[in-house]
């Protein structure tokens, strides 16, 4: 099996920044046709300009099930079928358990768990046989981080759901696997409320890991590329940890 993505049609959720945007760049270079989603129109427009390729932008908030269903209906009307789906959209709102709010809990679960589940459900009719679904999970499902309880649970919840879905969707040729990035330098740290000094200090602390630095999206892309390609045809509910040795 080859890892070539030439003429493959792939949808990436949350592709306006970070790992999602970097993955879109990489897949376009291999000749893939992309559909990317984002929840902010201006950021989506900016991402499309950066990508400058065969890209269809769709405004879709992963926390909004109605928008997810509208997106799927539009793809069906346009007779677009998918060879791959990368469930990348996610948020991280750190909070100690005793100070955790209901809003924090529900917003995290809505985007990191409920959104991917209903995105996949809505897009099942658009997925070819065979097709690959890649979930961008996190090393946090197996390594504890203070103040990351809800984030960890949200990622682990989808991984657990995927185990069942790999059985239920097998007859349709749909396979679901996960990539678990370690700490990766993206906009997620700033969005989590960390200031520049805190972020820099955190990244510097990773110099003691075996890889000797914080990870970047470029470190994560090869695993995503492998799982979304035909080379992963034999994998079901597999996960690839990319943590630079942080968990050793």
Characterization of this structure:
Strand 4 (82-87), helix 4 and strand 5 form a beta-alpha-beta unit. By secondary structure, this protein is an alpha/beta fold. It is globular and about 50 Å long. Helix 1 (18-29) crosses helix 8 (217-228) and helix 4 packs parallel to helix 5 (149-168). Strands 3-2-1-4-5-6-7 form a seven-stranded parallel β-sheet, sandwiched between helices. It contains eight helices and seven strands. The mean pLDDT is 95.
SSE topology sketch:
Elements: E1 9-12, H1 18-29, E2 33-38, H2 41-51, E3 55-59, H3 65-77, E4 82-87, H4 102-123, E5 127-136, H5 149-168, E6 174-181, H6 188-191, H7 196-205, H8 217-228, E7 239-242
Parallel strand pairs: 1-2, 1-4, 2-3, 4-5, 5-6, 6-7
Give descriptors for this structure.
248 residues; globular; seven-stranded parallel sheet; 42% helix; 8 helices; 17% strand; alpha/beta
User: How many H/I helices?
Assistant: 8
Distance between the termini: 32 Å
Overall shape: it is: globular
Annotation, overall tally of beta strands: 7
Average pLDDT level: 95
Instruction: Give the amount of beta strand, in percent.
Output: 15-25%
In spatial order, strands of the major sheet run: 3-2-1-4-5-6-7
Uncertain regions: pLDDT < 50 for 5+ in a row? none
Q: What's the alpha carbon Rg, rounded to whole Å?
A: 17 Å
Percent helix: 40-55%
The secondary-structure class comes to alpha/beta
The largest pleated sheet is described as: 7 strands, parallel
Name the helix and strand elements from N-terminus to C-terminus, one letter apiece.
Answer: EHEHEHEHEHEHHHE
